[in-house]
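Is it possible to get an amino acid sequence alongside its tokenized fold?
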Amino acid sequence: MGNDISTEQSDPSIPPRSLASRDIDGVAQFILEGRAKRIVVLTGAGLSTSAGIPDFRSPETGLYANLARLDLPSPEAVFDISYFRSKPEPFYVLAKELYPGHFFPTVAHSFISLLNEKDLLLQLFTQNIDCLERKAGVPSNKLVEAHGSFATQRCIDCKTQFADDLMKESVIAGSVPHCTVPQCNGLVKPDIVFFGEALPSVFHERIHMLAMADLVIILGTSLAVAPFSTLPQLASEGVPRVMFNRDRVGDIGSRLDDVVLLGDCDEGVRRLADALGWRDELEAAWLEVGGKVKETEVERLRNARPTMSEDELLEAEINKITAEVESTLKVTDDHVAWVNKALDGSLSTRSTRNPGTLTNEQDLDDPIRNADPVAEQRLVVSRSDKVSSVTSHATLDSSLPQNRPDDFNGSSSKT
């Protein structure tokens, strides 16, 4: 599974081969000496939680916990293509909460953009669907949205693209959009990879860039969803792999030039920027893409502090955090009622099974169903220490435990 690739850590008494030291300073020196000219960055949900986007798995605040009130067969069903065909309403409850425009890039997003400005970024592979990498200034030719994004949308039947303005209207109104082709009228969804769908072709077209990298930076991911979870293994031996994350995951730490920096992504990249002498550039880049929106609220609270007691300060902080969580996660009672009412209706006419999709364990053992070329060519993580082979048509298989989603938009602690 994603986190079972390797748990054996390198011997700390053996010095690294490429880095001067196995820490922030060693990484900074490696970059400043010009030895990192082709940096590949891998990101997950932990990159975006400080932007106000909640993770999926947190018991109280995660999106799955919030969606539980919609009486789904399982929280993951909201990203299941077969379920979407029959009952698309729950997904559009989620889409209203996550649709681009509500959130701004984080400091860590701006750090990646800064790498690009300095002509050091070879490629960014992200599992996030929030489009914040684009908003931070990462160009499309340097960006692989492995699980798709909200940037475009199309009919799931005839594949005709759907206009951005019409999509926005539907999401804001809480209605399910349908194809504008008269003879079709199929359901429309954003180009987000659902369980049972193939990953975008650009993922396979650019995956070789991991082998070209001279430095790999991993930010805020649990490496729990295949095939993305295999990417760090594709870096050549001797290439430093640096992880900023809440937890040590995958096989990071098993190689001599691995550096694991546990904690918040924003805090971690700020420390690296300090060591590089880039801190002022980083903060300026962040403010340019919306960081000042948060700064305004921070400044307001800071100015109020001199006249507030300790109890008042604590209450203000609690109220601020509560308001942020509620504004991000809240699904209104009438919206819930609307969705539940829609779910009670008969939508069985759209319950057609999507060809080439494996949805249960029985399908895995069925040679006839497995004859579909896309279904056959899935990439899953081996339990051995060997690097899994990468196929040209990897498919997310929701029946496998490593593919239970927490990285479509993340987990701050386990993404």
About this structure: Residues 2-147+193-403 form a domain with the Rossmann fold fold (CATH 3.40.50.1220). Residues 1-6, 327-332, 346-395, 397-415 have pLDDT under 50 and may be disordered. The longest strand covers residues 148-155. The chain has 15 helices and eight strands.
